[in-house]
Amino acid sequence: MEMLLYGLLLMIISCEKLTFGLYYCCNFTVLNHLTLFVACFSAVSGQSLTSSDSVMKKPGESVTLSCTVSGFSVSSYWMNWIHQKPGKGLEWIGHIDTGTAFAQSLQGQFSIAKDSSKNMLYLEVERLKTEDTAVYYCARDS
């Protein structure tokens, strides 16, 4: 599979069985470097990312979301958290590998951790605000 990016167009050439999936993109800034982030939620046999159930919290409370991984190790890939606020596009929150990095606009609001022994990824949000209402996704870099 070959993927070419032209502006905001993603062109996939030589489509294969493993190419099947939903593709989303969002931009993010880390260390003053603008990058196009493409999260592929593909149907790879035996691999899955399962986020925790929906939760409702009051402003000022804290929440920890979890993502259970199967079919690969969280230690072998950069693992990302992304969210989508109502009526908005996807926004990259941050990633974890040997350390963490966050979108500049979101630094200090979130923390990311992983437990390699349980193969789980976590996102903690403290002092929730109404504007934190969103759908949260975990994603693996390829």
Automatic annotation (TrEMBL):
SMART domains this protein is in?
IGv
An example of a Gene Ontology cellular component annotation for this protein is: extracellular region
Domain of life, per UniProt, equals: Eukaryota
Domain Ig-like: where? 60-142
One BP term from GO: adaptive immune response
Keywords from UniProt, A to Z, are:
Adaptive immunity, Immunity, Immunoglobulin
What is the name listed in the Swiss-Prot or TrEMBL entry for this protein? Ig-like domain-containing protein
Q: Which organism's genome codes for this protein? A: Cirrhinus mrigala (Mrigala)
